[in-house]
Amino acid sequence: MTEKVPSFSPGSTVSSALPGYVALCLALQVHRLESAQFTVTGPDHPVTASVGGEAVLPCHLSPRMSAENMEVRWFRSQFSPSVHLYRDGQDQYGEQMLEYRERTELLKDDITNGRVSLRIRDIRPSDDGPYVCFFQSGVSYENAVLELQVEGLGSAPVISVEGQQDGGIRVVCRSAGWYPEPKAQWRDLQGQLLPSASEKISPEANGLFQTEIAIVITEESNQKVSCSVSTPRLNQERESAISIAELFFPRVSPWMVALGVILALLAVLLPLASYCFWRQHRAKDKLQAELRWRRAQIYAVDVTLAPDTANPWLLLSEDRKRVRLGDKCQDLPNNPERFDPCPCVLGTEGFAGGKRYWEVEVGDKTRWTLGVCRESVSRKGEFTLTPGNGYWVVWLRGGRYKALTSPATPLPVNIRPSRVGIFLDYEAGEVSFYSVTDRSHLFTFTGTFSGKLRPYFSPCNNAGGTNAAPLIICPVPAQARGNLCP
């Protein structure tokens, strides 16, 4: 299906306003940005630590170089606040996460060789999970992701008899103080697993877990059983045993009880396992997307609009940072660079190499198109916005976001973006789009570029013929650009 730029009527209107500015010093510095001159390496396996103990997370630079004058930052799911920050030759605690106060230490004995380790004392269950080791020297910026696995060995199981059930005796096994979630099992004298009647794992106030598992012992089954509790991360387990006297047993057949217990366990455990896997995968993808977006921001450039390319219906602000659809067609020279009838305008700057990033405020507009195009595209008549015709763009129409591939690719958007970031990596042949609102990745075009590429903007007209908001080129915050300004 072909996506075409629509025509529009003279009665449509669009309102405009929003300042935009990117510091000149960033524009000068960004042309000198190069890929990082080092890599950051951590262990290729998870680091394990026991609850209440301490953990040492190692991290080093390759090739070997001094990190004394670098910024070394450890963080979790967000760049700031940090787990631990070293900058300007000393530890900085002003933006440290509250839960890590007075529990962290950066081991700097070998920092002149690029080796640093983070020591975390008084390990808690909440410390479990991924950590990012981040180094920055000038404009060079790299990181590695490490995994800390927290382990907690719980108490010995306590077994109690709690009366009759389904023709047998209900026996319950309880144990507390485990991390991560433990697994409890019943076994007979020969060590064979026995089906449980119920199982419950619940969190304690300190973040550890307690488990409760029950079994119904019948007269025909083994009357001596053992309960063992362990976690997948530990090679140790806790075990207790019990014997039930024959006089306690009522005369019932146990097979109906066993069948019911097995079906109940399957109904609970299978959906729970699927949900946990989905949640873990989603959290990892979100973290990686935010890191890619933050890396793109250090290549921010000052983009302005080119008046000689603007359609006569478009109105540009004096600083050439805002564009909206006007109420009438202006009397402008019909030069070869001007788009007609397409309601669009290009950026003044052309890029024939390197990496570039800029952000555009779209506000509450219901129709817009953003991206890049070849400088050599045709400016007159109707045309199709596809990579084959030299356009790499994303648009919003009727509440639906699409990447204009051939055919178009629908984009799932959970939170409506009010600001969109565009990142061009010319050598890699990639144009990526990010929602600055929730720091998520929207889409990436891949291909091969030739000739100059220029930023592309089309404010279009909103549904119902109203032009409620302009498109505004926004400044990227200085702290997101790696503090490039002197």
Q: Would you give an account of this structure?
A:
The structure is a single chain. With 486 residues, this protein is mainly beta. It has 2 helices and 31 strands. A 7-stranded antiparallel β-sheet has the order 19-20-31-22-27-28-29, with helices on one face. The chain is elongated. The model is unreliable at 1-35 and 482-486 (pLDDT under 50).
Strand order of the largest sheet: 19-20-31-22-27-28-29
β content, as a range?
A: 35-45%
The helical percent reads 10-25%
Estimated radius of gyration: 31 Å
In DSSP terms, counting alpha (H) and pi (I) runs of 4 or more, how many helices?
Answer: 2
Q: CA-to-CA gap between the ends?
A: 51 Å
- Count of individual beta strands: 31
Q: Averaged pLDDT, please?
A: 84
Global structural class:
mainly beta
Shape from CA axes? Answer: elongated
Draw up the topology in text.
Elements: H1 24-30, E1 39-41, E2 47-50, E3 55-62, E4 71-75, E5 84-87, E6 90-92, E7 104-107, E8 115-120, E9 129-137, E10 140-151, E11 158-165, E12 168-178, E13 183-187, E14 193-194, E15 198-203, E16 209-217, E17 224-230, E18 238-243, H2 255-297, E19 314-316, E20 322-325, E21 345-346, E22 355-361, E23 368-374, E24 391-397, E25 400-403, E26 409-411, E27 419-425, E28 430-435, E29 440-446, E30 453-458, E31 471-474
Parallel strand pairs: 2-10
Antiparallel strand pairs: 1-3, 3-8, 4-5, 4-9, 5-6, 7-8, 9-10, 11-12, 12-16, 13-14, 13-17, 15-16, 17-18, 19-20, 20-31, 21-30, 22-27, 22-31, 23-24, 23-30, 24-25, 25-26, 27-28, 28-29
